[in-house]
Amino acid sequence: MKLAVMQPYLFPYLGYFQLVAAVDKFVFYDDVNFIKNGWINRNRLILAGQVRYFTVPLAGASAFQPINQVVVQPDGVWRRKIAASLKQSYAKAPSFEPIYDLACGILFSAERHIGQLAQNSVKAVADYLGLATQFAASTDAYHNTKLRGAARVLDICRQEGAEDYYNLPGGTALYDPALFEQRSIRLHFLQPELKPYRQFADAFHPALSILDVLMFHDRLAARELLRTEARP
Question: Going along the chain, which residue ranges are E strands?
């Protein structure tokens, strides 16, 4: 089995989905501490002609609080503001209608916790693209919160019977290949491939939210962008 473990991000960038597509099972690491000013509750799009953040506001989030306990602000104008910005900025994009509907389906849902909302955003995109990857959340399985860092990831690999563990390049500073080799697990680092495509901007801006990618690609073309290679 090929396995990946990552925090849930809100409509993350293409490289995140290249990782999802590369594995058999993807585990949302949702019971670790929330990361302020990270990607769990925000991402970037080209809005009004400029790269800007869109953010789901939170109710008193703390860096000492597990992701799965962080709550979004009660229903207010933020959902309508994000939806209006999407419509104003992307209404003329080739795939606007299905992607706008997908985004609003997540943003206007009744989900109160940002961890689950972010997971739902990833699952919705994976389903739209027809990915066969299975999903799980560390909250619901494994029962190993006393472990930390690589030790916990290795234990998740053991419980899942994983033979290959995939991570994005940032993991090179976190994981010692020797520890994985000792447990007969192959460690791979997937290098994202962010090829230029048409955007509503004067220059190409890589690593925006997957929503930007999907606005300008049909389903088949978007799936082709998920193809990439991992290195040991």
Answer: 2-6, 25-28, 42-47, 50-55, 134-137, 164-167, 186-190, 230-231
Helix, strand and coil percent figures for the chain, each rounded to 5: 40, 20, 45
Please give the model's pTM, rounded to 2 decimal places: 0.96
User: Beta strands 50-55 and 2-6: pairing type?
Assistant: unpaired
The string of pLDDT tens digits covering residues 78-94 is: 999 999 999 999 999 99
Return the SS3 of 83. helix
Angle between helices 14-22 and 114-128 (to 10 degrees): 70
Which residues on neighbouring strands pair with residue 52, listed in sequence order? 45
**pLDDT at residue 231, rounded to an integer:** 65
Q: Are the beta carbons of 136 and 20 closer than 8 angstroms?
A: no
With a pLDDT cut of 90, the percent of the chain lying above it is: 90
d(CA 1, CA 136): 14
